[in-house]
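Researcher: Last one for today. Full complex below.
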Amino acid sequence: MPASAMDSLIFRDIFSTAPMRRIFSDEARVQYYLDIEAALARVQAGLGIIPTEAAAEIVRHCQAEQFDYAMLKAQTERIGYPVLPVVQQLVGLCRDGLGEWCHWGATTQDITDTATVMQIRDALVLVEADLEAIAAALAELARRYRDTPMAGRSNLQQAVPITFGYKAAVLLAGFQRHLARLRELRPRVLVGEFGGAAGNLSSHGADGLVVQAKLMDELGLGQPEIAWHTMRDRIAEVGCFLGLVTGTLGKISMDVKLMMQTEVAEVYEPFAHGRGSSSTMPQKRNPISSCYIHASVSVVRQHAAALMDAMIADHERSTGPWEIEWIVLPEAFCLMAGALKQTRFILEGLEVDVAKMRANIDLTNGLVMAEAVMMGLGRYIGRETAHDLVYDICREAIRQHRSLLDLLAEHPEINRHLDRAALAKLCDPANYLGHAGVMVDRVLANLAA
Amino acid sequence: MPASAMDSLIFRDIFSTAPMRRIFSDEARVQYYLDIEAALARVQAGLGIIPTEAAAEIVRHCQAEQFDYAMLKAQTERIGYPVLPVVQQLVGLCRDGLGEWCHWGATTQDITDTATVMQIRDALVLVEADLEAIAAALAELARRYRDTPMAGRSNLQQAVPITFGYKAAVLLAGFQRHLARLRELRPRVLVGEFGGAAGNLSSHGADGLVVQAKLMDELGLGQPEIAWHTMRDRIAEVGCFLGLVTGTLGKISMDVKLMMQTEVAEVYEPFAHGRGSSSTMPQKRNPISSCYIHASVSVVRQHAAALMDAMIADHERSTGPWEIEWIVLPEAFCLMAGALKQTRFILEGLEVDVAKMRANIDLTNGLVMAEAVMMGLGRYIGRETAHDLVYDICREAIRQHRSLLDLLAEHPEINRHLDRAALAKLCDPANYLGHAGVMVDRVLANLAA
Amino acid sequence: MPASAMDSLIFRDIFSTAPMRRIFSDEARVQYYLDIEAALARVQAGLGIIPTEAAAEIVRHCQAEQFDYAMLKAQTERIGYPVLPVVQQLVGLCRDGLGEWCHWGATTQDITDTATVMQIRDALVLVEADLEAIAAALAELARRYRDTPMAGRSNLQQAVPITFGYKAAVLLAGFQRHLARLRELRPRVLVGEFGGAAGNLSSHGADGLVVQAKLMDELGLGQPEIAWHTMRDRIAEVGCFLGLVTGTLGKISMDVKLMMQTEVAEVYEPFAHGRGSSSTMPQKRNPISSCYIHASVSVVRQHAAALMDAMIADHERSTGPWEIEWIVLPEAFCLMAGALKQTRFILEGLEVDVAKMRANIDLTNGLVMAEAVMMGLGRYIGRETAHDLVYDICREAIRQHRSLLDLLAEHPEINRHLDRAALAKLCDPANYLGHAGVMVDRVLANLAA
Amino acid sequence: MPASAMDSLIFRDIFSTAPMRRIFSDEARVQYYLDIEAALARVQAGLGIIPTEAAAEIVRHCQAEQFDYAMLKAQTERIGYPVLPVVQQLVGLCRDGLGEWCHWGATTQDITDTATVMQIRDALVLVEADLEAIAAALAELARRYRDTPMAGRSNLQQAVPITFGYKAAVLLAGFQRHLARLRELRPRVLVGEFGGAAGNLSSHGADGLVVQAKLMDELGLGQPEIAWHTMRDRIAEVGCFLGLVTGTLGKISMDVKLMMQTEVAEVYEPFAHGRGSSSTMPQKRNPISSCYIHASVSVVRQHAAALMDAMIADHERSTGPWEIEWIVLPEAFCLMAGALKQTRFILEGLEVDVAKMRANIDLTNGLVMAEAVMMGLGRYIGRETAHDLVYDICREAIRQHRSLLDLLAEHPEINRHLDRAALAKLCDPANYLGHAGVMVDRVLANLAA
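Model: Here's the assembly. Have a good evening.
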């Protein structure tokens, strides 16, 4: 039985997803190895380096499900790396010793690194799909609630009104940046490895670089300018990308948790029977997905640091730092996948209590509109005077627990300029939303672009 | 198929161990829950809070293997935590509704936290056994090589001679400290949790604290002075302990890797057929276990930081930080177990090349003995004069690629005081080992104490 | 002008404190070096190793303010470590070449490590004083608000009532554990270093260990069992301690921030004119100190990981890992000091709005008392029936936006057993505080012990 | 006196550089604030929002050296942020109350964030210059040693020959990627902030976005699509970039340290009198700069994680996470600057011992050429036969401590095909360098592009 949260029989679909786990499963890893061995055989047969018959036989057996995993485990423990044991089984599966032509001129880390890059490529496809779905969900929220007032909060204090659509658009802009980052890193990161023991293709003849180029073509990967066995900036960059994206997921989960508080109650994670409720505390509506996101994000951030640690590789093939990636990369992607899924779940089904948002603005008896009133009144009595007057009235409102509007309407210096109806308009958050709507539109326009 | 390195069909016994994984497996976790429910039922029956018949029926069904894990998974995903689903299945297994008496007055986190502490307790037993085995192996090395000269190195430069036993004793002293830390943290950490929704036992009558005390007695855990649902220093302290211990394992693996270098070749990881060798590079003897240790250590260190992050818990029951522990704690223990196992393997079978150690000291043509010569000659010609003279001769030895001894023996100012035999004695590392042996004895004496 | 936040002319007393910075200042560091050199001279003179006259002259000049820091900087950049430059200046200050007797048989890292331990010792005195002050402030809050009801919160949802004193006592228990940790680590950590180039005192004669013992006595430090130049668990343990303590500070700051929210408004950081207020948003009362604490905690946690990284030291004197400590240790202590100070400031002057605490419990129209009502009613109509009935009434209360008490009092199955007065009693949080008070007393009793 | 390593009177130019510290100094920070205030005044005067006379007077006083830093410190401690205190002093400096027009419609975080971006912009200019200098130094090494054989090492074991130029080119390719990353992140990161209390420019009229656009033009920064007060991916991305670059610096320092070992002795940090030497151990040549780099890298990596932590910002203006950046960003840049400087120093003056590189290849009695011999012999006796035969001979060579060439030349199955001269050619590392040279050329060509 598994011991890690992401493989747990109970927690695995909470902290991860099946498609992502599949990419980093043992069988998939072996299949990636075999896809590379098959591609190498095809390329080398095409160049006349190995017999066509051998290539055909090798390709025919590059099926991970034919492999014996118990033997693979035992041999990996003995040798230290799983590539050679896979090759040995592959040789064994081929008839007439034709398998001896497989893995021609390759080194363990060539296969492992290239497989890792293929895992990253496939994993990033899943990540991108989730990023786009999240962006779409945020765009929908931004559109629908473009003009829905709520309290903007600074230092966990109500500050001035914003709209819920604006809040969504701020998040959306972040995902647009993440998608741009993904576009930029792909060509730099999705580059294979094929260089032999020290990377300089020394066991290859003059055709070494041709084999390398054709192999990468075959696999749909970029050709490396030079070996990167111990230059791990590409892998660490992926870790940073995961860290940056999960950081934004963490920000979303933080806001959702805060807005779900009993005392705030503005949005809710999607309801499902029994979800987040308590049998003895019927008033509770727990933010479940947000908790999972929070936790995963805290771990992925540290994984990013561990992947940077893995960069401190020695000489041409490193002694320990490389293996950091073996542990961390699958886990970071799996946790990330879980956090993305939970975030999608929240955003695609978010329950929004527009009335409560409006009601919360009134919690301060209108004080949250003080800045608006100052600006509005300034036109009549001067900015500074307006500021000082309104500030004094606000303190009085706090003292007397009365509404700002009432006190403004009673004040002789004010009601000579503005009657209660005009003051009520000034105190209406819907009239003090600034450029929230326009900003929403700008972000949505970027999306279309 | 699992996706994490520690559960991988291929890597799991490289990066972890079966006994440690077992403790953090789903089935074991459910069994810990059930052990607590059973103990609670027994205690409450003993106090007359629930019927004796109910307790007997509950205890009879507290067997993890009777549980349906697919259902458990589905319900956990719905509810957010696995405790209630376990309780519901337990209720279902009991006849005549007697199961309704189980989990009386407990809250989800009471069971989860107490189970976590029991996992920690059992995991620390495994850790302690490995720490003691490692200490024993180091003690054996310290004893055997107490007087075996080798180059002491500072800044990766040969400095002055030490003994290999001294090197082992320095490490051993660290493990003695780790064992002391373990002794100290146990009573503080191995404390259960039982407090209800907000920890104040409000759903219990006057006997709440009695139930709590008897429950902890039954489980062999300490009684908490007050709830610690959101005071996670105990758990983070365990994470720090794992981080500290693995730090020392990392130091060992670093030294072994460095001493195994082709150019140094003083010690080797234990040999096994094919282990760490290459089919085309027969000169290689790769440090396999050291690589695994290095990688695990780099990850556990980051896990320790994540567990400190989990301390930033909100109010009486936290919203996300707690779940960090669910991911990190099992993994930190599992990786630690793997690193301990690899370290034991190295130390219990370490191959030591005493002749090569001695030969390496001579690599510098005796310059590594310069300090010894300065000290020895000082008696005759004064300390400062001796220093300046020897320093000049050393530079000459570097320039001429000749041995220090030859140049010393030729020097008129020196050979008037000391003949070649006397100088050779000064240049013999075995005569300049300082208090290495005595220090070894001191550390070994601590072990006995 | 300084560039770091902790030395900044503007921020230094926000993120740190003057007494802590003093300990880690250049002048103090030099003075620690000189204190060790002076002690060594005294010890060696006492043992007849160096002339008494030399020792007197050396001791006389061991005054950091006599040193030229520009020269020290230049020489440190050349040599790589500041100890030798300090010794050279000391030699220069002494008359008649008597200074040549200073630093007799010591190595750079002996002085540096011992100075570091002395810095830690003095820094921990400051830390302990703050921990005790914080514990005292929490004890005062626990005592004063022992029976003051407030909402206990789980998953940021109101759960069941607790008292504010109980909340303080939960925190207080954590500080009691931190003080115990401090007591335990002191004898293990406050151990000096004196071993020479490779730690084995090879440049000393038979009296090496005697000098070591007397030197440590003189300095008030423990004698090491063996050199620890590259066994850095002691230093990393201090980092972990700082990480654990700041974790608890982070929990406090999180709770204060949440309780200061506009919508919660139960406690406030101490008021000072202009503090945390806004010129245009008069309703704001920003949690300033809590922000600083949050930030410092996030950084110290990472520093703890960096100090574990520093444990991966090579051979007898490490090549880079050691210098991690030079950067991290001063900063971790300084940030910690700032966070402790800010926490003291909050807790010693915390404004508590008891009425608002009580009012918040009523926010859910009494639903937060549902568990209490279930328990109370169970006596009359059976536990399960009571649960189902109350749960249904709660959902009705949510639907109708009416109070739980009203609906209970109207219900025929309920009011036949309990009249409105009796029901009101059940719904009174003050009657459902469980063992909160007793638990407070238990924790306070520990404090006295 | 400062307490941090980067501000230390002794260490500051070891762990940082003056130009980088200058950017993050208090005075520079104030000047950045003032530059923004001046730009804002100019823009608003141009748009007729504030009087031209006021703008002129404001701009005239935007000189950081006119400000009182003690007062600034005191007021910042009171208010919590330094921007308002700066504005207040600026107002005070202006005649006739004209200063009241400054900071019109701006909020504290607008100014702080924009200043931070300007600091990043200027700091990245310094970083880029160092990256280019390092790339140039590596290019020079790659060119000069393009065909200089040395042992390629895998798992710290000699594997097959490479060239030192190849080793340099592998590193160089990494810096080319870093420079590409820098180009990509600049337009995304170098974007200002101007949005008011909640980011939606609510205190501005219709011209809010026009002011924003013109202000960013004036400052040479990009205009934000929407506020990013609590979307900190831009800042965290910079942290990741620093982490990635320092990771590569760490790799370089690791290789230099390893190559400087007494037993390897292939390259040396540049020599300067007394640098890295010992007064009593004349054989030592310590890698000083490499140690500093190693340490800084370990810290910056954790800073990157802390900056990702800072992404978990609440609502519209965060409560603590933001302040993480205040501590971490200056330090990460300063440590990075120090590490870049030390790396430049090493690479621009690296001493390379070509003869020792060649001699080390011979350490294994030619075994490091086994793969080459297998490949060469395969042509005559078949690949598999060649492998088995050579492997056996290698083991014999190890057993007898004789050279591979001797044993090959003696072997009847071999010397019938190849005479000693031919075999010597096979055993010559210069003839088995694979595509090392071509790869060097490819990377150098990229540089030119």
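The longest strand of chain C covers residues 157-163. The radius of gyration of chain C is 30 Å.
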